[in-house]
Amino acid sequence: MNTPDEKRARNEALMMAALDGELSPEHSEAFQALLRKDPALRLEYETLKRNQNLMKNQKLTEPVPEFWDTWNQQLFTRIERGFGWVLFTLGALLLLGYTAWIALEEILTEPALPFWVKAAVVLLTAGTLILLVSLARERWFTRKNERYKDIVR
């Protein structure tokens, strides 16, 4: 036996499926019969259908380019982005460092691996770290000394 709440929930589920175009032909016929029998349900469905059409036809207006220029020049935005990137980078470095440490520990303490494989892993890791530090230093230096950073192309 269906309670009124269960009936309402079933009708709402049918209505949402109809709005999304997900009803099978049998369910669609049953839903149309429900709409003919229940004027309140029909009114709610028509209201939702109108709202759906309004939302589909709604267009977002893009801000003018000058807005983004002033937005990016604001002090708070620059500090906020910089701080966010610093936290993100620190977190990523900590996770990557911990993962590398665990992996190296596993590889270097593995007795079955030959010495030359262990040496190659250590050399690869050291080379990668040196290259990453070098790249970070270069980026930092060019960012501080970039003459054309405020020029918009």
Automatic annotation (TrEMBL):
Keywords: Membrane, Transmembrane, Transmembrane helix. The chain crosses the membrane at residues 83-103, 115-136. It comes from the Bacteria. The lineage of its organism: Bacteria, Pseudomonadati, Balneolota, Balneolia, Balneolales. This is Uncharacterized protein.
